Amino acid sequence: MSDLWILSPVLLTLGVGIFLLVWSFAEHILAAKAFRPAEPAAGSKPEKEAGLKTVHGLAVGTLLAAAVLTLGAAWSGDRSVTLFYLMKDIPIYFHIDDISRWFVTVVTVIWVLVGIYSTVYMQHEGEEKRFFGFYLLVYGVLVCLDFSGNLVTMYLFYELMTLASFPLVLHNGSREAIMAALKYLFYSLCGAYMGLFGIYFLYRYCSSLTFMPGGTLSPEAVSGQAGILPVAVLLMLIGFGAKAGMFPLHAWLPTAHPVAPSPASAALSGIIVKSGVLAIIRVVYYIVGPDFLRGTWVQYTWMALTLVTVFMGSLLAYREPVLKKRLAYSTVSQVSYILFGLAVLSPAGFTGALLHVAFHAVVKCGLFLTAGIFLFCCGKTRVDQLAGIGRRMPAVLWCYTLFALALIGIPPTSGFVSKWYLAQGALHADIGVWSYVGPAVLLVSALLTAGYLLPITMKGFFPGQEESSGSAEDTEQKQRVQADTAGAAKRQEPKAAMLVPLLILAALALGMGLLPGVFTDFAGGIAALVI
Amino acid sequence: MDFIRNFSFFSIVLSLFSGPLSSILGRKWAKRVNTAEIILLGLMSVAVLWYVLQTGEAFVYTMGHFPAPWGNEIRAGVLEAFMAAFFCLIMLLCMWGGVRERESEIEASKQNLYYIMVNLLLCSLLALIYTNDLFTAYVFVEINTISACGLIMIRQNGRTIEAATRYMIMSLLGSGLLLLGLCFLYDLTGHLLMSNIQEAVHALVANGQYQTPLLVSISLMCVGLAIKSALFPFHTWLPDAYGYSTVSSAAILSSLVSKGYIFLLVKIFYRVIGFDIISSSKVIHVLFAFGIAGMIVGSVDAIRENDIRRMIAYSSVAQIGYIYMGFGLGTTAGVIASIYHVVCHAATKSLLFIAASGITDVSGGSRHFEDLTGAGYRNKLAGVAFTVGSLSMVGVPMFAGFISKLYFAQAAVGHTVKMLPTLIALAISTILNAVYFMKTVIRLYTPVKDGEKKAGYGTITVRQQPVKAVALILFILLNVILGLNAEPVIGLIRTGLEMFS
């Protein structure tokens, strides 16, 4: 039990998160009580600002402290903690292994950077105590999720993550946001229950539900009546795939991401969807075992689903005019790259998938933060409004371009490395015709990615002159574009707290591509262990 | 400490006689006596539980020291004592949670009557739990029915009288069938005491005599108790009875009355017939099928319902289905899961009813979904409590419902044929539960637009209703404790079932 301290970051974030929530709750009650209609608001504003500074300081301080503790816990060896027994043979059990380290590091880096960004961004959304309260809660739950050492513990925190993160989606309280949050909740719960359904089965067929590299399926239980087990595994894949935006349960993603505040969508898109990936890795590589699935119809169905998602996501993104929605569709497509890498069940594919987890988290998070800056500074949400934005904030648009290149996978950015491994994995795996179809689909999707991301850069730096075709609508649009261009002529970069995280993410997106050795070695090490 | 052996008998008699006492007291005092009595009964049950755990075996208490064929017997084991203590706790919290509604919805002159009914009900529940005599059980089943009818119709409006009549007709039908089955059994064995019947039944089965009458008798008793505990398709009386009565009645009816009958059924399985005979008979397949049908149909009905109280009532139909499905698995693991679900459902459903009353209070008294918009902000504690109850019913980890589903699944995977239907039904019903409970929770936390504000949208704070707040908080704690640390309760149930045989 001496390793109990690895849960200290969880305790810290949960404590401060709950404190902030109680504070916000208490404020609401007090406000309702002391409500006076014609109260002059003269002296109250600086006071409020001071309060907000405390909140920001508290939130960022907690995040940094928790980050140090988390990374310290994660990188100080394979530690494990049994908290208590949920049932006679099912403990709440945490164990840190290489997968935990990989995921928790990604989560921590992104969470801290987005947290710093939010201190400025959330000023225009309001309700900051509530936001940071839930933001910290989700971090604590995510750390638990990454550290969890058996299937039931993971499921528990998987559900808690849904519950803790959905207030982030409905943050602004509009009808649209609430309906989107509702949709998110439904898809997540339904997906999780499909996963739970599978856990019931695995409980029978596995020697234990504790994660073991290579799986814990017990051969004597499987032999004879394995007919139903593949179905259960496929259901788990689809169920946990709901969080990862895999077809057919992907529809919540493009609804929920655009309505959430931009930092929340960055966190959702960068991290929360990855917990679906984590769940699938745990189920396939640590419980069921890749050998059981290799060459079965489940593997082919899974692969087909991921490829459909990759293609469909890119195509929908290409047709989507609203920037955040376009990025959300792009997430649908990109996360299925990861799932495809997992589905080929080969070491190179697995390595590529793990690399893409980290790279996509950095890149997509950066893209959403950029979209947030466009929204925050200029109130622009649609792609066609962004013409000429490069004159106004060149640094931001340069970062955007770098992220775009990384997402497409152009060397020397990071996306190239992961996609290289993914394609290698597919080509060298023994999966028949799929080893050609897969990379082909990935290539087409990369082209589409270029098609939906790069025009913003081009229009942003070179707005040009639209040709007038005479119709009233076009004229109006043209006037608007011109007005925008004129307004955007002045150079006006966002505040440092917003720009610096963006620059760090951009440096990461580029740096991890220039020096990929450390990452590929680490990911390759895990791959060699599980396959 | 052998004095404690008297406690189970004392508690039955005490609750029986505090009924007349509260009829002559003033209203305030009747309430206080009632609370004190329930607490005392709970403490006595805990003492019995402690005693039985110490000695490690169940004891039989012969009334008046008359030996078996003439005298009447009480038998207390771990499970009996635990159930008695738990029922007292839930009863107390239900009474606290509905105190304000009782005072406003029931005529002042009839409020003492309410306490009499509650005393009688508790007395009959304890007797059902402790008795070792099948005919005594039948007598108290009838007392239970009558007092339950009283609890339904004491809030006088047209709907409750209709509901009480329906309840009475269905319930008496159930008691009639139970009585028939009991008579058959008496004919076959010549005994009424549970342990004697079991010996005789085992002898009959060993000799292969009277197999058909025995089967008929078992099925009559099962059907009778199934009607009384509202197993699908005998559930039609339930939504009205739970939906329109005053809130403590609804909570008591759903969490205690139906559970008393289910507990009697468990006793019949284990103590009267013998579980090996039950699990090899075909009756349990029927129970299994109707349990599964109930899980699905109850949830679908709840989704279509537009009235929050009736929605919760339909959800009870689904939960009763779970319990019968557990019995239908025909294994001890299934019965353990079912009894745990009895406990968890009692803790959750009464919480939901009481929270729902807090929610309707701040929505102009309306129970329709459109009017409940934003009620979670107007009565914050009730909103939180309803959310906790919903999450528990849906089966989100950390709350009681998740554990019971896990146990059901664990019981099911030990079974070759029934595994697949059970798991599929669990999955479908979980998703259906999520649909209607989450729909309600989201509705509660949807902010009201300015133009939509209606008359009667007040706010209620914790300080205005301290008793109810205490009840709600204790219920929430109970749910979380059952959800996080279920192992002790399961251990009690397991040892209790071992003591049964």
Summary, kept brief:
The complex is a heterodimer of chains A (531) and B (501). Chain A is 75% helix and 3% strand.
How would you explain this protein's 3D organization?
By secondary structure, chain A is mainly α. Chain A has 21 helices and 2 strands. Chain A has a domain at 294-531. Chain A starts with 7 loop residues before the first helix and ends with a helix. Chain B has 501 residues and is mainly α. In chain B, 76% of the residues lie in helices and 2% in strands. Chain B has helices at 7-24, 27-55, 78-97, 99-105, 111-130, 134-153, 158-189, 194-207, 211-228, 238-244, 247-273, 275-280, 283-304, 308-328, 332-361, 375-378, 380-394, 400-413, 419-444, 466-484, 487-500; strands spanning 59-62, 73-76. In chain B, helix 17 (380-394) runs parallel beside helix 20 (466-484). Chain A binds chain B through residues 25, 29, 32, 84-88, 90, 152, 155-156, 159-160, 163, 173, 175, 178, 181-182, 185-186, 189-190, 193-194, 196-197, 200-201, 203-204, 225, 228, and chain B through 380, 391, 394-398, 403, 406-407, 409-410, 412-414, 416, 419-420, 423-424, 426-427, 430-431, 434-435, 438, 442, 445-447, 459, 461, 484-487, 490.
Q: What is the strand and helix layout of this fold?
A:
The complex is a heterodimer of chains A (531) and B (501).
Chain A: H1 8-33, H2 44-74, E1 80-87, E2 90-95, H3 98-121, H4 128-147, H5 151-169, H6 175-205, H7 219-222, H8 228-243, H9 252-259, H10 262-288, H11 290-293, H12 297-318, H13 323-343, H14 347-378, H15 389-392, H16 394-408, H17 414-428, H18 434-461, H19 472-488, H20 496-514, H21 517-530
Antiparallel strand pairs in A: 1-2
Chain B: H1 7-24, H2 27-55, E1 59-62, E2 73-76, H3 78-97, H4 99-105, H5 111-130, H6 134-153, H7 158-189, H8 194-207, H9 211-228, H10 238-244, H11 247-273, H12 275-280, H13 283-304, H14 308-328, H15 332-361, H16 375-378, H17 380-394, H18 400-413, H19 419-444, H20 466-484, H21 487-500
Antiparallel strand pairs in B: 1-2
Helix pairs in contact in B: 1-2, 1-5, 2-3, 2-5, 3-5, 3-11, 3-15, 3-20, 3-21, 5-6, 5-11, 6-7, 6-11, 7-8, 7-9, 7-10, 8-11, 9-11, 10-11, 10-14, 11-15, 13-14, 13-19, 14-15, 14-19, 15-17, 15-18, 15-20, 15-21, 17-19, 17-20, 18-19, 18-20
